[in-house]
Design the sequence.
């Protein structure tokens, strides 16, 4: 979709800190604590759309991205020292140029799960691979191929629950022929129309076997929903944040403005609560947003955080909302991105200690190049400091960086966290994306 976003003309008052109102969050350029490292070394093809997970007990960080090597496969790299250095990329089995949308998770017992989408024999479906040696190899491969011929599938997310339980959400439609795409010459694609729905599948044996498809977003077979990140709370509650669009024509499945919606399940994903809109109705999400819009995080105290990209006036803005009651109610939106323009804003969140989270954004303006920033937030105190510029060089606006980036926190001591960020960019004279990563000290 085009990087220029059509937005609502209705403005909304937003909070810049808990309890306050304003229009902008201060930004400060700074250098990360650790050096910026290119982790897509030995990838001869362009690399993009990185995702991250971590094993906090072992201080290990895992990165997964698409497009590496001659086969343009999914690539995996791990750090055994908290993100200071990374291994050379490992190409995942069963991944090729026909695979897309990586996702990654780590179970409590240290198993690393990598998932992605693929297309075979006129079917689109997820693949889930498992590593039982902390990412040294991926020996278990499972294709969730039990879908009808001619279906449509996109953007998977994976989360590990108690024991050997896994949850995989993805975008599913009964008919690929109903899809109408909006594709950007310098980005990815979004949907003008289609039978789009968020569904979930569950495994109780570590990904060896998977249950049936369960509809998460109401209105199947054409609920207007896509992009549904999932997480599991310590008590087993499953949470999903999805992007829901208005379906303005039930025959052509034409999609109009969208919003973020939150839903949860307390019975292992069999039934889902009535969706709650996150943010006011005046904050529209355009069908032209080609990046993954919507991110969900959980802190150690049980507070939830949702980030999304929407319109305010004639500008495109990244926002944050939080919930302290398991998603039943959400705060007023907190403005994240400081610039007032129509730049691409890819915004994500990762939970930290109780009452805290780190928010990151990859944006191509107003510097006319992609830059990565992070900032710490507190439910009680608001922003805990200025934004930190992580990227050491701007990425070319004319080269797609991927729809997502990696963001996570590792313990650094009592109530303090280290941050590891990873992102795609084409820097310098290069017309090819690379994946970069940097480890930062505590932001607050």
Sequence:
């Amino acid at each position: 979709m085009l990087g220029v976003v059509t937005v609502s003309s209705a403005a909304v008052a937003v909070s810049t800190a808990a309890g306050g109102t304003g229009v902008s969050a201060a930004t400060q350029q700074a250098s990360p604590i650790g050096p910026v490292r290119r982790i897509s070394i030995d990838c001869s093809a362009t690399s993009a759309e990185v995702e991250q997970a971590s094993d906090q007990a072992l201080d290990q960080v895992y990165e997964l991205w698409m497009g590496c090597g001659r086969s343009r496969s999914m690539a995996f790299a791990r750090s055994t020292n908290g993100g200071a250095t990374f291994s050379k990329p490992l190409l995942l089995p069963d991944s090729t140029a026909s695979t897309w949308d990586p996702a990654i998770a780590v179970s409590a017992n240290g198993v690393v799960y990598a998932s992605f989408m693929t297309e075979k024999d006129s079917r689109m479906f997820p693949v889930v691979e498992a590593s039982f040696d902390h990412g040294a190899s991926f020996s278990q491969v499972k294709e969730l191929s039990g879908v009808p011929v001619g279906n449509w599938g996109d953007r998977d997310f994976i989360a590990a629950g108690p024991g050997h339980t896994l949850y995989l959400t993805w975008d599913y439609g009964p008919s690929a022929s109903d899809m109408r795409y909006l594709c950007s010459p310098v980005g990815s694609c979004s949907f003008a129309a289609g039978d789009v729905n968020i569904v979930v599948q569950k495994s109780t044996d570590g990904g060896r076997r998977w249950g049936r498809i369960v509809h998460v977003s109401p209105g199947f077979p054409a609920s207007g929903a896509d992009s549904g990140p999932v997480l599991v709370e310590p008590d087993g509650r499953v949470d999903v944040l999805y992007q829901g669009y208005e379906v303005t024509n039930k025959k052509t499945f034409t999609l109009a403005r969208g919003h973020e919606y939150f839903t949860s399940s307390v019975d292992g994903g069999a039934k889902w609560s009535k969706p709650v809109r996150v943010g006011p109705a005046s904050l529209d999400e355009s069908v032209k947003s080609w990046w993954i819009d919507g991110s969900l995080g959980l802190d150690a105290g049980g507070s939830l955080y949702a980030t999304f990209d929407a319109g305010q006036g004639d500008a495109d803005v990244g926002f944050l909302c939080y919930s302290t009651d398991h998603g039943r109610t959400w705060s007023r939106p907190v403005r994240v991105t400081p610039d007032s323009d129509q730049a691409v804003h890819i915004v994500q969140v990762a939970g930290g200690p109780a009452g805290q989270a780190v928010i990151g954004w990859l944006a191509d303006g107003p510097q006319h190049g992609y830059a990565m920033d992070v900032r710490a937030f507190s439910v009680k105190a608001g922003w805990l400091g200025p934004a930190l510029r992580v990227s050491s060089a701007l990425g070319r606006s004319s080269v797609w960086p991927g729809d997502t980036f990696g963001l996570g926190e590792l313990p650094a001591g009592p109530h303090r966290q280290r941050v590891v960020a990873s992102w795609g960019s084409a820097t310098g004279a290069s017309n090819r994306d690379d994946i970069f990563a940097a480890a930062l000290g505590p932001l607050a």
